[in-house]
Amino acid sequence: MLLTLTTTHRPATDLGHLLVKHPDRVQSFDLPAGTAHVLYPEADEARCTAALLVEVDPLKLGGGRGRRQATTPDSFTLGQYVNDRPYAASSLLSSALAKVFRSALRGESRDRPELAAAPIPLEVRVPVLRCRGGAELAVRVFAPLGWTVTATPIPLDEAYPEWGDSRYVDLTLTGTLRLADALNHLYVLLPVLDDAKHYWVAPDEVDKLLRAGAGWLADHPERALITRRYLAHRRALAGEAMARLAELRLADEPPADDSVETEGSTEGSAEAPRASLAVRRREAVLAALRDSGASRVLDLGCGGGALLTALVADRRFTEVVGTDVSSQALALAGRRLRLDRLPERQRDRVRLWQSALTYRDDRLRGYDAAVLMEVVEHLDPPRLPALEDAVFGHARPGTVVVTTPNVEYNVRYEGLGAGRFRHADHRFEWTRTEFAAWVDRVATAHGYTATIGGVGDEDPELGCPTQLAVLSRTDTDIRKEETTR
Questions:
Q1: Is residue 309 within 8 Å of 215, Cβ to Cβ?
Q2: 92 touches 70 (CB < 8 A)
Q3: Which residues, at least 6 apart from 461, have a Cβ–Cβ distance to it below 8 Å?
């Protein structure tokens, strides 16, 4: 079975650094059921392709029945040895991905940490993928993640077109994503589409699913199907996974109505769905933090840890602190980050503190940047001056990134009636003029300069669905404060 991964990022040969596989070498790896090979059919500055070729030994795959393996989608005895497993992408290919590209799956790169954390142009090709549900299902599971999907059914026999299509597709994915995100999408979704795992699904598969699905599975429109198939239709495990995903969604405070904050509806259109607004918002915040040059970052009002997960994955952030007034939210964030399983060096980068943003907290002083992502609207307006004093007056990070809903855009959300906010706990939502006035007043009062932008598709009349401001202290102001300490 074969998978190719191509980038046109320049220099494209940086792909070798991200995958930790040199383009000038062919490398082989032993697998329980065969051998995996990594090679580069093309590698120059303009374009680089890495190929993962997996050779499956049917005898090895057919053995070991005592381990209760699900070796083949066919039930007859000979099917243990004569089947499509050596040729069609399946959980065998996912297992090879996990072993061969382990550090890339985690978003780690010793040589190119900045590139590992950045979206790059990617094209993934899986020439033969058993797809139970057809090409349409491949689009449904990959497109919401930001991929443009081409799934071409493979005919049973090209010489006899009247026989129709086989159960296989030729899959091509194109998009601009982090390499780690792309690999985790493939790790989860290839066996989901194949719908036949080659090994016994144990309870620890729930943890594997949630770890690989961090940041995208909880909000995926097909999460129930993905969870059920990934866990081999084991009802108890699927139920546990769905319950934990529901906790993550609650901790991230999704809108009260499922149609709210959903972008890129494609009903009746051939256009691929866009990433959710929540994902695009996190990406915009991360971009602002990177542009600021921050290394020590506060996520104020971190909730269940969606942004924290992305911050920890980026090695440029040497210290990451999440604060929330809710101990339950912090517990969920800890579970999402899997702090108990992180290597000690990574775990030492992360802090979770219970703290109220309307009170001064000396622990929060001295950080390079702080994030208030969808936080201010949860405070009663009379409490905003206390937040301003605690964050901008007392903690005084070098940069503060603020996001909040644009109430003018709410009319574009189906089912959001007049006077309703996007979440039941919102105390207010600002117009663009109101937000700009608040940002200007806070910046002037506390010695910051500010830029204001938006996140999401911009409506020519109403602006973007999310408002974003970056408030920065001047270098002179920071040096003056350091001198007086």
A1: yes
A2: no
A3: none
pLDDT tens, position by position, 268-322: 334 444 577 888 999 999 999 999 999 999 999 998 888 999 999 898 999 999 9
Asked whether 152 and 127 are in contact (CB, 8 A), the reply is no
Q: Does residue 429 contact residue 407 with C-beta atoms inside 8 Å?
A: yes
Provide the token pair at 299.
């996520």
Task: Output the six-digit token pair for 262.
Answer: 């959903």
Token digits of residue 230: 């990934």
Distance of CA 363 to the CA centre of its chain: 29
Find out whether 393 and 364 touch, Cβ atoms under 8 Å.
Answer: no
Residue-level pLDDT at 182:
95
Q: Over range 53-69, report the average pLDDT.
A: 65
Q: How confident is the model at residue 413 (pLDDT cuts 50, 70, 90)?
A: confident
Dihedral (CA of 359, 424, 277, 193) sign: positive
- For residue 451, what pLDDT is reported? 97
What is the pTM for the complete model shown? 0.56
Q: Which two tokens stand for residue 13?
A: 């040969």
For the chain, the residue count is 485
What's the order of all strands across the beta sheet hosting 369-373?
350-354, 319-324, 296-300, 369-373, 399-405, 466-473, 448-455
The beta strand positions in 178-281, using DSSP E, are none
How far apart CA 169 and CA 4 sit, in angstroms, is: 15
